[in-house]
Amino acid sequence: MSCSVLDEEQFRQCCQLLLQRSDQLGDGWSWEAVQGSEEGYLRKTALRSVPSDWGPLHDQEGFNFHPQPQTLCDSTGHEKEEQDPAASTGSVFLTAEEDDDGSYTVTNGSSLVLQYEYHILFSCSYGAPVLYFRAFTLEGRSLALEEMWSTIHPNYRLCLQNSPLNAISQQEHPLLGQPFFFFHPCRTEEFMGPVLQAASDQGRPVNYVLSWLSVVGPVVGLDVPLQYCTPLHSAVSLNSTKPH
Amino acid sequence: MADDKDVLRDVWFGRIPTCFTLNPDEVTEREAEAYYLLLPRVSYLPVVTDKVKKHFLKVMRAEDVEEMWFEYEGTPLKWHYPIGVLFDLHASNTVLPWNITVHFKNFPDQDLLHCPSNSIVEAHFMSSIKEADALKHKSQVVNDMQKKDHKQLWMGLQNDKFDQFWAMNRKLMEYPTEDGGFRYIPFRIYQTLSDRPFIQKLFRPVSPDCNAHTLGDLLKEMYPDALTNDGERKRYQVLIHGIEPLLETPLQWLSEHLSHPDNFLHICVVPGDLFHRSPY
Predict the structure, then answer these.
(1) How far is A76 from chain B (nearest CA, A)?
(2) Are residues B157 and B194 in the same domain?
(3) Strand partners, A172
(4) Are residues B94 and B166 in the same domain?
(5) GO terms for CC (chain B) (predicted)?
(6) B112 touching A (Cβ < 8 Å)
(7) Of the candidates A100, A223, A78, A230, which has an alpha carbon nearest to the alpha carbon of residue A158?
(8) pLDDT digit string (tens) for B112-170?
(9) Which among B144, B174, B204 is the end of a domain?
């Protein structure tokens, strides 16, 4: 069984590779170093438009929501719109309605624009990257946890709510000390294991951080364009026999 | 020499005499009296301050009451830190009682996490326990426990039941004899003089040549400024549960006996004074 745990040096190398690609693609990631040390994290900000019919969200004036995300997805799986969540996360969301003649009318449903900030840190306790994030309205008000739930696609919400340890919760940023939201890293090894095993079986190098990000990022509106995966000049691969 | 088990009890039952005063800017219907309480060092503010809230709500109207939060000399107090850590970090060299100001508006959401209910405190507490076990045992012990065992840890803390808590917690303190200790020691070093909230890194209790690492070894590696060199005046105090353990103390022993219920060793480095401190 391959070792699906990362050490800090490997994390840094994966980040540097990701950063190189990001620079080439203009994807906006930067490396924030902790003063006077090699320690640091990846950072990116992005604007994101979230449809207000994914869940009752606040209106422009204030704060008017019902923290009941389950109501959007009933047990038959019937949803208001047929959308591939992976495709819709980074861009403005459009509602498609079918007309009588079978064609689709695309309308711009009402939506809210939010300013997101994403940080990728390393957890030495779990040997894994961790995603910290927060969001602000354009007026500068930061989102509360209940509102954050409303910005997550209903499909993902169902999966997350079934997972223990409240997969997304508020947490103090370990380097900045400010409140952020984060994905609890305790299950990362579980889902990265098969990814690394498959790559190892096929003799393919894997960028742990990039692969991990492509799983967790889209849930919170962070797109990882496919162009990241075109072959890199060098790659960090995890040797399956590395002792840990 | 005190039995090691006595140390566990002394740690659990440590208390800080505290005086809660309402922020003078709150809107009240009449004057609010201060409220005095002995706070458990090892617990968390939201768990033990129901009475404080009830006391001040008596003089306020419901519409003037939002989420309660606490502040000491202008610094919002992070409820997700154990109470003893907050005291040692911010007020260790001041005269008792500890004076805390209570607020019911203008929640500082850039500084403090929200805490709408005790289940949020429970989630944080369990999250720390799981992280500590990831370091000590690659999560094997905590994952082998059942949900009711996890619940017992939380209920033991919430209801101040030492025996109930330790009946379960002792499993988290075991290790294979041949290893000589845990895999890594769960610790956090707090300092007031930097933006970084704490230092937490991997550190083994035993060196490659099988010598026990001490508290001094940990600090030398993680925060050498905390140590005093020969001939220098002492600049800092290194506090755990309000006392300064000898730097020669083995780290494994500290981890087993002076950890908080969340299984972390919380170490506060504060500007020191030259007076001898009394324990707790």
Answers:
(1) 30
(2) no
(3) A179
(4) no
(5) Atg12-Atg5-Atg16 complex; autophagosome; mitochondria-associated endoplasmic reticulum membrane contact site; phagophore; phagophore assembly site membrane
(6) yes
(7) A78
(8) 999 989 999 999 999 999 999 999 999 999 999 999 999 999 999 999 999 999 999 99
(9) B174
